[in-house]
Amino acid sequence: MTMPTAKVTKRAVDALELPAEKQTILWDTEIKGFGVRVLPSGLKTFIIQYRNIEGIKRRLNLGRYGVLTVEQARDQAKIKLGAVARGEDPAKEVYEARRDMNVAEMCNWYLVEARAGRILGRKNLPIKASSLDKDESRIKTHIKPLLGKRIVRHLTPSDIEQMQSDVKEGKTAKPRGPGRGGRATGGPSAASGCVGTIQAIIGHAKHKGLLAKHPTEGAKKLAGRKKTRRLSVIEIEMMGKAMAYAERNGENPVALGALRALLLTGYRREEGQAMQRAWVSTAGGYVAFPDTKGGAQIRAIGPAAVRVIESQPEIVGNPHAFPSELGSGAFTAVSACLQRVCKLARIEGVTPHTLRHTFGSVAGDLGFSELTIRAMLGHASQNVTQDYIHIDEALKLAVRRTSDEIERLLALGAARLETLQIRHMKEHECLAA
Q1: How far apart are CA 168 and CA 173, in angstroms?
Q2: Do residues 287 and 275 lie in contact, with contact meaning Cβ atoms separated by under 8 Å?
Q3: CATH number attached to the domain at 233-432
Q4: Domain map of the chain by residue range?
Q5: What architecture is domain 10-90?
Q6: Ramachandran region, residue 87 (left: φ > 0; alpha: ψ -120 to 50; beta: rest)
Q7: Taking the model in full, what pTM does it have?
Q8: Which residue from 77, 206, 311, 411 puts its CA 20 to 30 A from 422's CA?
Q9: What is the side-by-side strand order in the sheet with 280-281?
Q10: Are the beta carbons of 148 and 138 closer than 8 angstroms?
């Protein structure tokens, strides 16, 4: 979106409203081709736009507002556009310099551009911050140490595959640092992820004109192993028994609530933990997520899961269904609680994704179709712009029946614990007598 032209002054730049998406440009009325661009993030950058002697449209960043004053930017614009009038191309040096970017420089370029919303990902939307955080971690931990100094346009598919082998074999493994993150171990999953990240970065660079061709196209990526682990009926009952025992022995009730909600909904860990009470419609039987891995979605939720949410403590100023004890954030340690419960139940190989797969598998056991199960898990398109009243009633029924069945199995496990405790009490009474 482009605003009407006006003289670019400090007051005009300060008054620029942030666009809801993409960008807004205010073009100067005195110097043709000089303007200031503002992004949704609030970043304001002075730019010039012109056509070179070949008729190719160029846009060149002069500098960020705050680093440059309006007067300094106007002076630079006059110099650069004067060069254009003489048949020169001020952006040519920039474009040629980028052709010889090394991998580290191109990764830095990507992170800056993507975080500013100027690189689009899935569904032609800006790449999510969580995805960029993951990319940045791979870049810092694996890609830069192995390929950082290499010139991008000289790379070959075999270079990418060698990087993948090195990460897989743990050559970039390192101990845990002082921050919150865990230690970098490498392995097949990390290796495959690094290939995906660097190939995407090079692809974006080519799309933006920084490269004439994708030099590593065709590099082979390790096939991922499909996660098929689910909890059996017996294991669900064992989880119920272990959760009841943990509850009576001091386990964090919010952690157990979040864990139970994941079991009863099949939601992704991030979705369940970050859920806010305002998103939940008890009467409508849905949760309106403003953002998920597949974008904004309406997801059906059964009464059993709603009861878990409603039983959680409400903290003033904290909107989350599973609130953190401190601040206004969400509880984020459900994975640690899951591992403690699994240890009590003597169940191995369980992750939050296992709970999601279990929900889908129980739905399959109940006779629901693969298409219905995909919709239950949020794989099918359910855009929030649709009328909430018209959420598929059959889908709600499927979610409710699946949730009720898992709740029943958990309750059976808890009842077994109760029976054991009553038996032990009677044994003690007999001994005392």
Answers
A1: 10
A2: yes
A3: 1.10.443.10
A4: 10-90, 103-207, 233-432
A5: 2-Layer Sandwich (3.30)
A6: left
A7: 0.63
A8: 311
A9: 280-281, 286-289, 297-300
A10: no
